[in-house]
């Protein structure tokens, strides 16, 4: 008998833990009330509940062309809440995240960078009704012939497949193109597949799992389909306006490069006009549907006056995504001007935004956020070490406390400890200072030498 033993990896494989990897949603109950701790979110109840209302408005299509601004001090979860909104909206709603400073890239004009971001945030859902053969494969036989140029190689030539549903069974004989796909997709008995009657494209939906074959399987278990094998099926694809722009521009670029015209990274505006016209036509014919997604711009005070006026104008167009901005600035100059404005955002744009505020955390909230982050970063803490970090988080900042975790873990490991103790945290805090301390330190020397 073969003995099988599980081998625990010594050190976990490379996995980048992003700052917001623990956020899985907004953590609201069915009445939209924030649970103290859910979906990786802790506390900050009003802001999360407000974000929940925004999510509902987006889902009901009541937010198009409007925006949200999340304001609050640094480290109070503004970005975390935006990530929560994205998670709540689900896969099907486009969500584009950028920071205000990203528009100053040297590769593209500012307005082009913003235009692309805007168009990535608008989806177009195409629905198509197609005739397909769908069912469980109950028999499959692939017929081979000799390769025309190499008699030692056999190539698939045709196939015979029997597809079954609860009510029907159809035997299909298919040609080479489909036989090749059946092989490539490794279609076996018990797989649920559908074949497009017109194009011959084969799709594998999953497998009928009667009994558990293995503990871990890579395929999805599905139910046996019912109804006829040959039927009409609705197929949905979601593309963004940017995808369509790129596809259309590429077609033209191929022609242009043939004629020796230079290529640019920017998409010509007439391409966008054409795409818009086509999309509007498809929508009015009922063949496509617009899915306004979310464009999230973090550190919105980094945008300049041109970018703001571009955004304000874009929000008024009929193909506009929902804008979510975040900033930690109070009254400050609008970049590119000498005008001071709340959050560095021009008033005409501010007027169009719903404002959500985040407030500084209480120690109990900090403790739970740190606990979640410690778990996420796989840093085992003793209760006292967590208390010490909570104290640092409350006195200095939450970010600072989070950043000390990994150094503290290394210090503990060097001492041969499995868990991080108070001493490790204190030593980490001696090695790495927070911003207030680093500024105070430099100022002390400036007084002595630099004057
Ligand atoms: N309510 C919360 N629940 C769980 N984790 C949170 C919460 N608030 C913040 N965090 C986490 O704390 C860290 C700091 O929060 P975040 O980056 O969202 O702050 P911010 O308000 O965007 O700050 P800044 O103004 O500096 O950009 C992140 O890792 C974030 O995921
Ligand atoms: Mg942030």
TrEMBL record:
Enzyme Commission number(s) = 3.6.4.12
SMART domains, alphabetically?
AAA
Q: Which enzyme class, named as a word?
A: hydrolase
Please list the GO terms describing molecular function. Answer: ATP binding; DNA helicase activity; hydrolase activity
One Pfam family assigned to this protein is: TIP49
Q: Any stretches that span the bilayer, and where are they? A: none
Residues forming the AAA+ ATPase domain are: 64-384
Q: Which domain of life is it from?
A: Archaea
For this UniProt record, give its keywords in alphabetical order, as a comma-separated list.
ATP-binding, Helicase, Hydrolase, Nucleotide-binding
| InterPro entries reported for this sequence | AAA+_ATPase, NA-bd_OB-fold, P-loop_NTPase, RuvB-like, RuvB-like_C, RuvBL1/2_DNA/RNA_bd_dom, TIP49_P-loop
What family does the database annotate? Belongs to the RuvB family.
In Swiss-Prot or TrEMBL terms, this protein is called DNA helicase
**Naturally occurring in which organism (per UniProt):** Pyrodictium occultum
